Amino acid sequence: MRAQLKGKQEKLQAFFADSGVKPATILEPLDAAHWRYRHRARLGVKFVPKRGGALVGFREKGTAYLMDMHECPVLAESISQLIDPLRAMIGELSIKRRLPQIEFSAGDGCLSLTIRCLDPLFEEDREVLSAFQKQHGVSLFLQSAGPDSVEALSDATDIDLSYRLPEHDLKISFGPTDFVQINPGINRKLIDKVIGFMDVKDGMRVADLFCGLGNFSLPLAKQGAWVQGYEILDVQVERATENAKANALDERTHFQMADLTHESGVQAVNLHECDAILLDPHRAGAEAIVKALPEGNPRTIVYVSCNPATLARDAGILVHEKNFTLKAAGVVNMFPHTDHAEAIALFTR
User: Fold this and answer.
1) Which residue of 1, 5, 74, 82 has the fewest CB atoms within a 10 Å radius of its CB?
2) What is the predicted pLDDT for the residue at 46?
């Protein structure tokens, strides 16, 4: 693992060098459990009689082929132990050739499976699924088209799909296909690092851009900040608002829709009124936002990145065009045993 982390850190520094910036401090990598860390996964499904029936697994790198998996050491135990039972169950379905994928999402003490169905289920199929759900204590959802088509299996019981942040006395609820960080141990450390970088003081004004469910917004509000969250998906805005209310933080937070990948969406954010900004963008980065930053406020930016290449590109804009200093940066080991690296960076001016 030491060699993995070293390689990821070197890769991050190389991206920064290509953009002509250098962190004043290289952080120690944020690291946690190296096995059983993955609490969300999307596994492919294919019925292949010549290979013993249904396959459930990740796709082989660079191909459309599925791995012949029976377990996986990086998946949470609750997910990994279901691979063989799922293979057997899928073989009993009449539409076993029409199920391309299953999305797993594990919360604290609960597990949901969203099954993509290209054809309608027969009643016999529903009976098979219901028996599987009851036997394994999971909640099954069916998806016939896009995200809006997801529905619970007819006899599914209510599910409390959520995770806790005990250090902040918070509970975050989410839906079966909502985006949440896949590695809860790293997520907790990342939240604490963000709060530390922000140096939150009571009444501080923070804009959480790409706020999702409120994963960072609510801990920041708990520390005394006034947080304005922005997200492109209305379902995420609704979920963040509900989470704030459930945690008695609705008076310190406000969430609204904005497409932050385009200039028109960025204009909805009063950037000059923020003391600090948290950026946690998609892989494309936050170029539209950093280019729109005014002089003066904000004076602090904490950037959480799932793509060090676009982080480095945006760092070049912040340092060379917006008068920020890259105070610190380091790797976040969200995906051990892969070549994927995430990162966090602190900018001040």
Assistant:
1) 1
2) 94
Quote the distance between the C-alpha of residue 235 and its chain's center: 15
pTM, entire model: 0.93
Pick from 44-48, 58-62, 170-174: least confident: 58-62
Is 110 a residue of the active site?
no
State the DSSP H helix or E strand holding residue 163, giving kind and residue range, or none if neither: strand 162-165
Single-letter residue type at 278: L
Closest CA to 251 of 231, 269, 227: 227
In the set 72, 117, 211, 306, the catalytic residue is 306
156 falls in which pLDDT band (50, 70, 90)? low
Look at residue 158 in the predicted model and tell me its pLDDT: 67
Q: Which domains does the chain have, with CATH numbers?
A: 2-34+183-348 (3.40.50.150), 40-152 (2.40.50.1070)
Is the pLDDT confidence value at 183 over 60?
Answer: yes
